[in-house]
Here is the input.
Amino acid sequence: MSKPINKKITIIGGGLAGCEAAWQAAKLGGQIRLYDMKPHRFSPAHNSPMLAELVCSNSLRSDDINSAIGLLKEEMRRCGSLIMAAATETRVPAGKALAVNREHFAEFITTRIEQNPLIEIIRQEITEIPPPGDAPLIMATGPLTSSSLAESLAELTGREHLAFYDAIAPIISADSLDMNIVYQASRYDDGPGDYLNCPLDREQYTRFIQALNEADKMPLKEFEDQKYFEGCLPIEVMAERGEDTPRFGPMKPVGLPDPRTGRAPYAVVQLRKENREGTTYNMVGFQTKLTYPAQKKIFRLIPGLENVEFTRLGSIHRNTFVCGPEVLTSELRLKNRPDLFLAGQLTGVEGYIESTAMGLLAGLNAARLLLGAKLLVPPPDTAMGALINHLTCAESKHFQPSNINFGLFPAVEKKMPKKMRGEYRAQKALASFDNWKDVENIPD
Here is the structure.
């Protein structure tokens, strides 16, 4: 499909998603203007003038193809991802994880982008979203989007659909719950209700609060102020305000009698469905700054969660993202401005690789829009498709950014041992992905 395109695609942001979008669009013949404000201005987290700077960990997480993140990486490799090529070239030993030398990684990507004759790098800050033109625009400015550019995006999307601080509660696998303890009920409702409930007696609750107070917490970054919304306080901050504070908040047992005994527990942890299939559940009100090891240890003190598997752990950090189900199409365009694509964490994904994958799709679709070709929407049983489905079909009232995990995929239709599920899902996903890629003529 690759052929020269006379109109120039504008991409704002030279991070992972922006660079991947430029690379993919150029493969289809697109001419690109890639804007990056460095070195004239740096965000609070950046210090290198190079493109695609990794600001947190140098790990891109598991490379096991039978894991959800490993599967996503493989799909991207099959689309000729620049970022995956850079990771392969600059890999450092990290066990089963894919980790890179940060400097060499950024140098590799910057050099490739600079040497591509179809990509023009413009070192200039964009402070507001350009008006509609005759070519697509991709916004890939990341979680630390400047206040002026974020304000411009808020005007387009509606302020109620743009978040600037991210409070995430853990998500757990439904089949790892102990249903001999957990019971189904919604507050004051007759019948089974929509929530699952983990009951605690007084002794269990006291032990849990003590563990919260003693747990290790993640320190705030220099550019993050400790300004929590009262409606989404970290669970450990609630505990610091008084032993009974969580019990009058998200752990309130009122109206939730255990149907097996008819009595209300001393405290309760509620779990809400994260997807329609009910394969994963969100721990209601449990956004947290606890370290990951502390979360795993302490939350498994909750009755019914002793052997729970986490598909995502909780966090609170500065972020900028839209409420995808309200404002995004499945092609990553704004519903009210179809020339404007979003990529990276702005879309509502978490993680380096997930952000890059959204850049990959946005770049391909922007070029295809200019070519008059059908825009791409990956099948929902693929890793890319599962992310798109989460961004556009999740319940908007409770939408939260997410890493890729198998809980976002369609439910496995047949019973099998837990250890076999990843391999089964990966094989099925890659077969579906390859078929889709061939049908849509997506270049390697």
Notes: Residues 418-439 form the longest helix (22 residues). The chain has a mean pLDDT of 89. The domain at 8-167+318-439 is CATH 3.50.50.60 (FAD/NAD(P)-binding domain).
